[in-house]
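Recap from last week: sequence in, structure out.
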Amino acid sequence: MAIHLTPEANPTVQEGTLYVDSATGEFNVAGRTTPHIIPGVLYPAYVASGTSPKLLDGTTTHGTGTYNGVSVSTAYGTVQADGRKYYYTNIAGSKPIKDPRIGGHFGSQRYRITSQQILEQETATHGKEVVSFDGREFFRGVATGGIANDSKGMTPQMSENSFFEITGYFSQANLLLYTYGYTRSMTVSLDGVTAHSAFQSNASVDTPLRDRYVHASHVINIPLTASGSSLSSDVTLGIHTLKIFGNVGQGAHYPCGFELIAQDTTSTANRSKIQIPSQDVVSYGKKFTVSGTPHYDPFSAKTDGSAWTSPTSGTNNANSSASWPTNIDTATSLGLGKWVDGSNYYRPYNGGRVVKWVDSSGVIKTSVTLMPPNAQNIGGTAINPKANASVANDTYLPTFSGAIDHSLAEVAKTFHNREFGNGAANTASGNPYADASMLSGQDNIAYVMDDGLTSLSANNVYNNGGTRQSIRWWNATTDDAWYLTFIGTGFTYKGNPNMTRDAEHHTHLCQNLPYGTHIVKVIRTGTNIGTLNVDGVLLHTTVNNVDDELIGLRECSIYQPKRPPIPEDAVVLADYVLMADYVKLTSRSSGTEISKGVRFISGSRDVFYNGTSFTNNTILDVASLPAGYSGCVSNATVTVKLPFFGTDVNMSMESQGAAHTLTFPGTTANAKTGISSSTTKSDIYTLADSATLGVNEVIGTILNGGHHFNSFYVATPIHTSSHYQAFETPFLHELVGGDRNMEQHNLVCSPDGKTWDQITRDTSYIGNACVNANTDQGSTIIDEWRGDGGSADPTNYFNKDWAIAYDRIICLKSGMYEVSVGTLVSNGHLKVWFNSTSSHQIIQGHDNTGTSTVYGSAIHHFQRGDYIAFQEMSPATNYNTVTINRL
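Predicted structure tokens:
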């Protein structure tokens, strides 16, 4: 390899030559460098008590002096007198961080807190313990009270005189907070300017999310504008540091994370624009500086510049010319042809994948993968199909025509049914939170994952077959059903094993749906007979003893639009999914019909509750609620509210005729329409008017009378293409909730192909532990799966890469593992089986001398779907333990 040490920004040296990049000082290989964004650096403008923020020299005040003869700006992230860019901080000893202004920014991004790591340098310099949250360099805390791992999930503590500090590119923010019926104030500041000296959530009762061993926080907006705080003017989108401080005399607070919202609110037009700040990228082996402010919807305007919308009646709008707008790169886009009829090019209103990338000349291109006017289904039959693209966006129901087509789809995530659970909140019996993970005999089950959206519920089901890997209806009852809620465009599942078809048979239920939330419902209508539905549309009726495996559920795959085939040499600036244009629900019969283009939020996640009395509800009427849970039952008037980034909202509750109220946005009165369901506990309210795009708060008031609040459905403009990419913590792989409109996590930011998360987040604290579980019931069934055992047993219990399955554990990720099991026996045995209940013993132990502890371990290579079963652990003690480590 030739070596060229003269720094060059755009190397002209021969391919394969090693050269030094003049902008970054990095060694690159000409023609072979992975396309990437070059992150800038922000230096700490530290503020000591009673002083102004200083540059690195410790003397010059930020925002003073000149650079190259021009007065510098007071805004953070702008070049200062020493030629550097800075961020605000109150933490002494702070280090430089990577500039978060990479790629495109628009809407909300969530940052949960699930762990903390001590920062030695900052701690020594600051004089108090400084920690980072989940290894993030831009998210830290000072003198925190630690993080509890208990029945309310992972809950950080902010004591008096401690504070949390997060730096990012944003203009608005939400706080994720756990409350337990208290009103305590915090101080909130932005870049050192006090926004609120007594910010509080005003909760009068404990959250109904507690005791489920899930994140029990709710989302509340922190007003940062002049009308909602003491800031002198509206916050400009830019680099900011948000700080919350525990006020003296107020006790502990439990902030569990933040949502940072990037939106330019300076004009109506700017509210809908993606911000691509000026940044250096390497694309096609060349360095470019790019920037821009495109509309989030690449089909927002026709070729002549006029607005391009999708009407809900009449006919769809055609483009002003017989072509696609010039901002669409047709050569690298998929699915465009379905929206052309003759010489007319119609607005694509069913959503799709959007990728912004930089071509070989430094121009930002837009590629798309569009969902067609009609989806496809298992039978390949036509169900109310749209004749062509000219038909208006006139129904909230999906329409179908033709055979399944996978050419526009990719798998977003595959779930085993046993993943829908957390050990039934550490109860071997499954009550009061029965879920698929602890299902054995007949039961009703329900579980909503951490995203607050993806859920599985079923009534009168049991586990079929010796493998205990497929749920199936109890033999005698008709009208039983299982429901699965997801966000995406398609759904495939494996049914019951050992039936008339191969156990590995995939049932392709539906594909190319409008992007948004969908509800699959499979209902029993007779012996081994059932119907398959999505969003209330009947897709298939099973035939007894021919395809009766379709009525069970072993595992399922959720699909999303395929990533457009952009060139491999191009750097990506943004990758997101355009939601289907919103069409609100007008009628509901089965309880599974929903508005088009919405994100579902279960009442068991994120929602703030306030009232004098309500019931922390468990499983409720699984046959009538898609997610199986209601958030609460009103024993008095209850207020439920949620801030979100979007324009429209629906509310699901019981008895729409009971004059509950729905206020949106904020305190604005909005006429509502009640929609009754055949199952009254899942009635719906929709609203007559939309709100201006931005952070809007919906407030529902549920009247006294034992009414059930269930969920919200929000219309948000775009959504992350990484919804089903789990966030790894020391204990779990978790889905992340929130609007999550556009994310930078997976953008490539180094010549060797590392992503933003890889170069900015230190994950060395995570380790290789996969399972640690125990029992406290004197049973062979392991039932301690979450939290810790309290002061008497500080051990943390958890599982990842393995699914809880009542009396066994199922491998989800193939690999080499070490399995260790222990029990206290008296003249007894310890046996652990591999993929069997009667053979393939991998661990054994025996004691003939009296009561003693018996341990056993084994190293084994497991494939996905393999399981280990605990057959002869002692039922007379609570000393049964199991640990699994990845090797």
